[in-house]
Amino acid sequence: MVATCLHLGGFICGFIGWIGVIVATSTNDWVVTCGYTITTCRKMDELGSKGLWADCVMATGLYHCKPLVDILILPGYVQACRALMIAASVLGLPAIFLLITVLPCIRMGHEPGAAKYRRSQLGGILIILLAMCGVVATIWFPVCAHRETTIMSFGYSLYTGWIGSALCLFGGCVIVCCSGDAQTFGENRFYYASGSSSPTHAKSAHV
């Protein structure tokens, strides 16, 4: 029962973390840049926001963004971080699907526990790979962006990526390391014996 609860908790953490990675990938508020103080940059309309897909200027009441569409002139770190975040988002699809099929409430015929255990382990490994892609991208991007311009603060997209990657890493490790073994996986259930001549039915359990 404990292994089942841990597996379910790992799945929930991985799913929420994957959503966070997708949000970080699709938004552009990764770092806030400014060549002076924030107050001066606001007055001069030079307070910027930099992300994977656009460079933005946050003027008073307005938000102007310039899409980064010319791949040939983009810095290498931007392209690499794009690839890592896209890979993380895509890896989440098969990982979540595999983990859904091994949840205790899902039954696929008389499938042995060993088969579900293998799918669970594969899903957990994919979640960990997803997390590693997110961790590398969300650390690499601000470090390299700081070499180009002065970073005043981190944006919500970067925080979302960090939190999402951390949740995925935690959830994947729980699934891989704490979900029991192949012999007992998926066998945590209670049932009542039927057809007994005794007036009191015996309760059997697999735990």
How does the SSE layout of this entry go?
Elements: H1 2-26, E1 31-33, H2 38-43, E2 48-50, E3 54-57, E4 64-67, H3 76-101, H4 113-148, E5 151-154, H5 156-177, E6 189-192, E7 203-206
Antiparallel strand pairs: 1-2, 1-5, 2-3, 3-4, 6-7
Descriptive report:
Helix content is 56%, strand content 13%. Helix 1 runs antiparallel to helix 3 (76-101), helix 3 (76-101) packs antiparallel against helix 4 (113-148) and helix 4 runs antiparallel to helix 5 (156-177). With 207 residues, the protein is an alpha+beta fold. It has a domain at 1-29 and 75-186: Butyryl-CoA Dehydrogenase, subunit A, domain 3 (Up-down Bundle). The longest helix is centred in the middle third of the chain and has 36 residues, at 113-148. Residues 188-207 have low confidence and may be disordered. The protein starts with a helix and ends with a strand. The strands form two sheets. A five-stranded antiparallel beta sheet has the order 4-3-2-1-5. It has a two-stranded antiparallel sheet with strand order 6-7. It has five helices and seven strands. It is a multi-pass membrane protein. Belongs to the claudin family. This is Claudin. Plays a major role in tight junction-specific obliteration of the intercellular space, through calcium-independent cell-adhesion activity.
